[in-house]
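Hello,

Our lab assistant flagged a job as stuck in the queue for most of the afternoon. It eventually completed. Since we weren't sure the result was trustworthy after the delay, we are filing this so someone can double-check. Below is the sequence as submitted and the structure that was eventually returned. Let us know if re-running is recommended.
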Amino acid sequence: MGWLNLIDGILIILLVATICCAISLSRRLSSLRSDKKNLEKLIGEFHDISEKADKSLTGIRATAEEVSRELAEANAKSRSMRDELAFLVERADRLAEKIATNPNDLSVGKEAKGKPLENEPVDEAAGTASDIDFKDNEQSQVERELLSALRRVK
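-- returned structure --
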């Protein structure tokens, strides 16, 4: 009987160890189940956040395209204004050369005020913008603004 009691004792010890392992495993599985619920919640939140980010990116792309279009329009407008200003500068240079080469041949400016041009010195070959009266019906708005600004500078 001694051997049977010894075998029963070993079986009891092994059964107690198995029960302890089963309890530990049960606790771990319940922890995993609760973590699974938290993980599903986090996945749902991640999905919502990714949808919001996608909508935001769509809005950003639309805004970027709109800004790009507006910049292209502004660029085109500035180029046309640059070309017009270059034309005005070229025209002013030609007029300055004309004044520099023949200052007595002016039919506009001081002579129109009743003073002869021969008695007055020509400063820096062209005078000032307010001394010359531009009567050109084909002047653009930019030309008129430039002439107005030049007259105010004096």
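-- support follow-up --
The delay was a queue issue, not a problem with the job. The result is valid. The two ends are 130 Å apart (CA to CA). The chain has one domain: 35-153.
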